[in-house]
Write the structure tokens for this entry.
Amino acid sequence: MKAGVVIAVDLGGTNLRLGAIDAAGRVLVRARARMGPHRRKRTLLEEICSRIRHFEREARACGRIEAVSLGFAGYTDAERGLIYFAPNLGGLGNIDVGPYLGKRLELPVFVDNDANCAAIGEYFKGAGRSVHSLFVFTLGTGVGGGFVVKGDIWRGAHGTAGEIGHTIVMAGGPRCTCGNRGCLEAFTSATAIVREYRRRKRGRGAGVRVKPAGKAGRGKAGVLGATAGELTARRVADLARHGDRAALGALDYAAKGLGIGIANIFNLLDPELILIGGGVSRAGSVLLKPAIQEARSIIYPPLAPRLRVKRAALGDDAALIGAARLAFAALKNR
Amino acid sequence: MKAGVVIAVDLGGTNLRLGAIDAAGRVLVRARARMGPHRRKRTLLEEICSRIRHFEREARACGRIEAVSLGFAGYTDAERGLIYFAPNLGGLGNIDVGPYLGKRLELPVFVDNDANCAAIGEYFKGAGRSVHSLFVFTLGTGVGGGFVVKGDIWRGAHGTAGEIGHTIVMAGGPRCTCGNRGCLEAFTSATAIVREYRRRKRGRGAGVRVKPAGKAGRGKAGVLGATAGELTARRVADLARHGDRAALGALDYAAKGLGIGIANIFNLLDPELILIGGGVSRAGSVLLKPAIQEARSIIYPPLAPRLRVKRAALGDDAALIGAARLAFAALKNR
């Protein structure tokens, strides 16, 4: 008899990724699809369900399917299998994805925040193995976070902990998609990087230290991938590497925000290791080097040598591996 | 035979408080002294030691002295009984207070951050009893924080977690005593409130939303108590209650920072309860009401009803009771 697998699903702002993953965290087969924009919960749920059904045949070839486990970019309730609010999925809320899929697929279904899944993935198989405590930033369409303590994700009293993207680092600063000003996400997400690049290209100059970007710079979700004339954060990073001044400025702006976020996490939580993951982290040293420099300049100097920041190791697989890990652990405890 | 007591010591920026406390968290006797400014570790340690020795007689009348437990306003290493850095004690660093006092007093000596002690105190005997998770802000000369999870304080990988006062909420904002700009402490400490009041009295107008206070407003440590012509945060709060516009403005500025700090903690850690303690919290509703309003305006609206913020209940005794609690727990585990 083959060992069991979990179908892990990573539903971000733009893409849906699937993987059949065994208990050792190996991704045996994977698939990927673009998500259409959805205005109704029903059609969103139906699309997710049909994507999983389609993938089931491939997954079954790898082993008995034990469960489905979903990581979502939004506020989730892991206990009840709910999505409270998915700002990057057209702002839909109160989606009972767990119960819906459980009934349709006749499998146990687990739901968690995608950054929580990525953090557990990195802790289990990636750059965060064998540390005491770990904070993972996931930089994508939005900015998420996951805090791992002694092998467990810290979900908080209501399951919504980890939202580093909506902590405010510059009161009165650039507008965030959430409606507030100066959230970390308004600096360091793909959305913010593209917006800042455009602003600089229009010649509106640098606003790095104090000046808010203002209403005119208000961004749209989904630009990591390929909306808005195909200008993506990845493209901006490429331009920066080739010395484009507006692109370098935009990356510097993002790094400034990320550096403050890293210093704030260090001062507040003192984790053994901080990891930077998500699609935007592929920008590499053009983003991470100035961010770490900024963080070190903030931290009380005698403590600064203790700051450990690395790039996450698992790339797009982090959330899949983490989601599967959470499902295997939950099945064991049943 | 009488039950044992712990001599708890709370060393803040201005005052040293002492208490003889039993295992049930009752403060059986207390004392208080002003700390002279110290430029050398040696004289600081000697003053602390002689204050404790003087108090020992009173404490002994309450029961057998089992240990001394100190809460300090600064970066501490609880494991090694060290103070790394005490910004409000003349900037002294690397003070081996635990080993020094242990040798002189011939008692077990425990050392922890004062906000950690206050958080444990409130969890054990105060406003945070029987909650799942708790974050305590301590607003005094500086701003500290303590995060309690399942009955334990979260100290981090190196013992320096909880420093909410030096998380940045307004990049480029008002200068903090730590040298950075826009730390929460630069808004919501006694030091910052007095400074902001003075600035407004001089007619430099409101800088609440975006404008940094600038170098001219740079504050001094120790103003909670009675330096600088006796103007204290308490006095500013009194003036605000009587309708003084500059005082109301200064409290509003402090509330703005505190509200962001509360929202950041809610988004990042989702604790069941947030408590506001420390001397500045005595300002009461003139500070807390607008702070909670600000926090609610930031938090994603469907989650906002879950925000629970209260005033801490134990006042000046919180850190003493918590320090004693930590000592009794450590003695039990020996």
